[in-house]
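Quick check before the chapter quiz. The format below is the same one you will see on the exam, so make sure you can read both the input and the output lines.
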Amino acid sequence: MGTVTFLFTDIEGSTKLVQALGDQYRELLSTHCRILRSAIEREGGIEIGTEGDSFFAVFSAAAAGMAATAAAQRALDAATWPAGTHVRVRMGLHTGEGTLGGEDYIGLDVHRAARIAAAGHGLAAVLIAMGEPERGVLLLGANAAIRERLGGGPPPEWLRLGDPLTDARRSLGEDAYTRAWDAGSTMSVDETVGEALKAQH
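Here is the expected output.
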């Protein structure tokens, strides 16, 4: 047992990609796995397991996990994908206590890391739909800023023009919307994680 940094990843919109690409999805998945494994290994991480398009890895230091995440996002952004598609991968990092159970890690912090990976902008859209547009926009602003700081490129197009933000703008008004987005963009990773976890309780 000791303090380690967990990484969970999964491809955004993988079901739609499978439907759109058919057999070509195998090529996409192979490229995705090669990029993830290379970034994890380069920073001294250990791949604990995979399931479908999801990865679970562990690092001895938070800095190594951050470096692997940034490198993977850059490589994913630069890669050539089948049929001109563009692949985006959610990545969640969490540092905490990990207990090795057999060949896998167990414990509360492992579950927290998985929740962080899933929180992202999907959670923000849910908050907006449930009548909490300010909190939703706050998380979206934070998510976009963190992606840019990690070198993951600009946020997905729907973050700027999609229905969730259109609904939030209409509900809040432009001034309140801008304040919430700007407040989110100044949040640290830890503050964003805390807000995302709080929203899931």
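If your answer matched, good. The chain has nine helices and five strands.
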